[in-house]
Structure formats: structure tokens, C-alpha cells
Amino acid sequence: TWKWVVGPMFLYLCERLVRFWRSQQKVVITKVVIHPFKTIELQMMKKGFKMEVGQYIFVKCPAVSRLEWHPFTLTSAPEEDYFSIHVRIVGDWTEALFNACGCDKQEFQEAWKLPKIAVDGPFGTASEDVFSYETVMLVGAGIGVTPFASVLKSVWYKYCHDATNLKLNKIYFYWLCRDTHAFEWFADLLQSLETQMQERNNAEFLSYNIYLTGWDETQATHFAVHHEEEKDVITGLKQKTLYGRPNWENEFKTIAGKHPGSRIGVFLCGPEGLADTLNKQSISNSEADPRGVHFIFNKENF
């Protein structure tokens, strides 16, 4: 028995030592951005740090807790000279981090007063394969929208600097959330991409749909009154916010009709129930003929 146990235990100890060594490397917080609804963005730098789109890291703040590590999805793009995470204040640890960064104070915070941060990672996810397809469907539910901030930023950088070598030429993005206010920073990112794409006369590159799943009659009435306005009254985007949940069968059939003979990547960051639905739709809408349309499902659950 010991022969079978020693090998895996040795590999496990090696992996723990590597992670401990990585977590001891110096991390510098270069900028703290306060977003609405108690969400902060930490921009950091670390020597030798390399990332891909959609990856995540573990973060420890010794000023808050010497033992607690918390996972956060990277919201920056590999092309940027820093890496960033968005932290929504929803518990004791995030509240303490918010205060440690001086976000509860009105005056300007000096950089040297910011707390020390330890970072372990990055670690890979399914989203890294997004550039392997010509057409992709990105589905983010709630906080699962954060990996696609990195994806969409990276797509934009690649599109601007080397569009001829970019295999990806069409993105269908679906954002399902109960309350868009909690992720207002992401709506700002979409608005920026929307404007830049229009300036380059390629507004069709990114098609997005925002579904508000938690709504009441008052919101619906407000939506009906302002529906004819140029921009959505909730997000400020040209694409109007939709209410309820998508009809996934219709969405898959529509996309399959627009891209015959294509391999379409379906990427989800969301709950297990939605993963089962998208997986079934990917299978049922893929053709048996190898030359037909095929949906390739990739998931990241939380």
C-alpha cells in the first residue's frame, strides 16, 4: 500500500510547496477603483505573472485574515500591463478588505497605506478556449459574468491590433441577472465596447442580450413607458433589457441557421441547472453530418 501512497503524496507536497512559493512573491496594488453598489476593483502587478482569459486566482489579505484564501475571477485582459479583480462587498471578509483599502474614507488614500496582498495562481478554466472558434455563445448568469469581462476585453485588444489573425469573428453574449445594478461596472464595459465597435463600423461583431430575471410589475410598467427611447433606461445601452429567461431552443436554432457548417463554442459560467439545459440544447441542435453545424459545450459552475 505504501508504494501506491508515497507517489501521490510526494506530488501533492510538491504542488503545495510551489503554491506556497508563488503566494510569497510580492504583489503591488497599483489602483483601487470604487464602483457603484459597493463593488471595488483592485488593479495589481506581480513579477512574472502571466494569465489567459477567464482564469481565476486565490487572494489572501493578511491585514484581514492570515489564513483565509478566497477565489476571484480575473477581469483584466492578458494584453493589459496589470491584472485585476472585482470584489463585491457581501460578507465579513470582503467588508474588512473594503475598509483596509480605505474605501470607507472620503480622503485620498496613499499607495503605501494599502494593505499587503498575497496571490496564488492563475488557474485555468474552460473560457481559455474561446479563441479556438469562429463563432461563440457566451452565457453568464449573475456573478458568472465576470470571466467574460476578461474575454471581451481581450477580444477587443486583439481586434484592434491584429484583426487579420483573429479567428473569432462573431460573439453572441447572454447575460442573465436578477439585478443589473449589482454589476453596473460590467454594463459600463459593454457600453464602451458598443461605442468602439460602432466607430469602427463593425457593430455586428458583438450581439448581446441582457435578461433581467428578477423583476416586478412596477419595473415592467417603467420598461413599457420608456421602451421607445434610444437607450435602455436600466443599463444605458442601445440593446434593450429583456425580462424573464431566454427561450434557449429558439436561440440555438436561430444561431444554427445563421452559421451552417460551423463549429460553435458555447461557454457558460453559471449554475448547474442552466448547464444541463445548455448541454442538452447543444446536443439536440448539432447535426449528425460532420459537415453540419456543431455546438461544443464548455462550462464553469459555481
Automatic annotation (TrEMBL):
It is a multi-pass membrane protein. GO terms for biological process: defense response; monoatomic ion transmembrane transport; superoxide anion generation. Its cofactor is FAD. PROSITE patterns: FAD_FR. Its main location: membrane. CDD domains: NOX_Duox_like_FAD_NADP. GO terms for cellular component: monoatomic ion channel complex; NADPH oxidase complex. GO terms for molecular function: metal ion binding; superoxide-generating NAD(P)H oxidase activity. Catalytic subunit of the phagocyte NADPH oxidase complex that mediates the transfer of electrons from cytosolic NADPH to O2 to produce the superoxide anion (O2(-)). In the activated complex, electrons are first transferred from NADPH to flavin adenine dinucleotide (FAD) and subsequently transferred via two heme molecules to molecular oxygen, producing superoxide through an outer-sphere reaction. This is NADPH oxidase 2. It comes from Nothocercus nigrocapillus.
